[in-house]
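Forgive a beginner's question, but would it be possible to get any protein sequence you like and the tokens describing how it folds?
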Amino acid sequence: MRRVLKAAVAALITAACLITAGPSASAAPPAPRHAVAESPPPAPRQGVADPASAPSADPIGSLGAVSASAALLASVPDPERSPEGANDFGCKPTAAHPYPVVLVHGTADNAYGGWSGLAPVLKSAGYCVFALNYGESKPHALLKATAHIPDSARELAAYVDRVRAATGAKKVDLVGHSQGGGLMPQWYLRFDGGAAKVHQLVGISPSSHGTTGTGLVHVIDAVTDVAGHAGKPLGLDSPAFKDQTIGSPVVQQLYAKGDTEPGVDYTNIVTRTDLIVTPYTNQFLTAGPGASVDNILLQRVCPLDLTGHIGVTYDPNVYRLVLNALDPAHAEPVRCALMPVPV
């Protein structure tokens, strides 16, 4: 058991070092549409689903970051492995859930590492679930989503077309983490025709607007350059890191005409304890013409949820927020699970 925990911690530290970090800010987002806080013992308020009512694939319970690291380690023998419940290309959407859900993992992760918690929850809720691996710097790299963001967006475009062709759906819902909920799918929506094929983008700790890296962006860029060259055989050559820093050419081009695309709904699930995409308020979007935005601060829903950037995709409170975003007509009140690890 000690060896397993040491390996999990080592993987967690590696992931944290590979991604830029920075401090949180103090501003609060606009009030969310369907995420109202409930902190027991007070009675739940309207609009947020109960995490106890859906299955959880989190084997560690409240230690989301440990679960994320354990899932990534489990994918070492097969980095292309699909998470449970995902990538059944024979699945046909139902009238209740007409949009297939495409899960988009974050930087220096893969589909199994990112979505072994949420994918089976969505599948059990009746969705057709798909999860792609993208952005490899070398074939079958363990840590993916390291390529130049416009290149990865083209991979997402091809994958969405494949899902639409297999399922017969006109549009999909995208649920993504970090890069996968922020700059990369937003680039796809704006520049690769994605707005006509996507109903909603749900971003979990999305890398929208880039990160300050605690004011050390240039130092971080230099470090990732060295790490990229040294670790290229391991797939660590990572243009995506630079693309996600504040002021990068990708960030400037993407947001030159606003945050959103007409016809797309955006939901952003943001944690105040995020030390990767900083300040955390960068993750909020402003709705432009023909689009809607729901900015949800996790601590407004569950004040005792301290989950940070790495563990957020293994947070049962986040599962419920995602389910509510995908099906707001059937949102349910939340009972907040305690998440005490701010990583």
